Amino acid sequence: MRRRFAGRIAQAGPTADRGTTGPQRTARLRFGHRPLGRHPPWGTLKGMCGRYANYHSTDAVVRAFGIDRIAESFEPSWNIAPTQRVAIIRDDDGPHPPQDGVASVARLRELGVARWGLVPSWAKVLADAPLLINARSETVTTKPAFRAAASRRRTIVPASGYYEWQAQGRGPKTPFFLAPQDGAAIGFAGLYEWWRPASAAGTPEGEDGQDWLCSVAIITRAANDTLGHIHDRMPVVVPQDLVDAWLDPTLTDRGEVGALVGAMPPPALVPREVSREVNSVRHNSAALIRPVGPQGEQMRSSTEG
């Protein structure tokens, strides 16, 4: 059975075509939210260091990415970590639940949420599943955990910026926040997957809490020279002119998907040193992205002057 964000809930208004001026808002969607079990300490995660921020509002993301339908809103956060529920965007080419007796096949762009840390469809127990927060662009179309999603379940993870930690001698690593200079929302290329416990096979949805779980991984690439001195990997950021192509549900050829990823240029992001308070998920406020060190002193001097 084909899974969709809004497959079990009624839409709040008439079906919208791509390019409509306002999104449909649906009732809150129930995602499987079973115990997440064990996960490795943050320092063992590869690729990105495992933190990003999305402090743009739902309405700002709707405007930035042309959302037609909201399956579930999200809360802004300055410190998003693996296993948390995060916003994702996907295109659905229908058919959609009928309105006034008519089913729509229009392509709709919808906003939902997913667990950060893709759970492969073949995993039997969630607690024992690998924590796949990243997928390497170089192998995303060939690795068994990702290749099916690369063909059929591509998504965009809206973000404001992300954190990386730079090693400096023998002391503790220094965190940096990397974001566009103009503060615009960006979108990481991602893959999503649906998962349900093997024990729930043949069980109607919703019984015994065995609903489907939607999970997501962020695709990474080698960092460009501008940012490579901080970390050797960076997320793939989808430029606005390739958003439609990346989300196109009719694009299923893995070779073409790989070529599309390779065609995405490195983003223009500005790094700033920030407080080590970001190291703890207990801290979550705008203070986490304020510059410290020389940049912070320069900003304070200019303000005082």
Number of helices: 5
Largest sheet: 9 strands, mixed
Can you tell me the overall shape?
A: globular
Please give the CATH architecture. Alpha-Beta Complex
Average pLDDT level = 80
The amount of helix comes to: 10-25%
Number of strands: 14
Structural class by secondary-structure content: alpha/beta
CATH class: Alpha Beta
Order of helices and strands: EEHEEEEEHEEEEEEHHEH
Low-confidence spans: 6-21, 26-46, 297-304
Q: What does it look like?
A:
By secondary structure, the chain is an alpha/beta fold. The chain has one domain: SOS response associated peptidase-like (hypothetical protein yedk fold). The protein is built from 5 helices and 14 strands. Strands 1, 3, 5, 6, 7, 8, 11, 12 and 13 form a 9-stranded mixed beta sheet that branches. The protein has a 5-stranded antiparallel beta sheet with strand order 4-2-9-10-14. A hairpin with a 7-residue loop joins strand 9 and strand 10. The longest helix has 12 residues. It is globular. The relative contact order is 0.17. The C terminus is likely disordered.
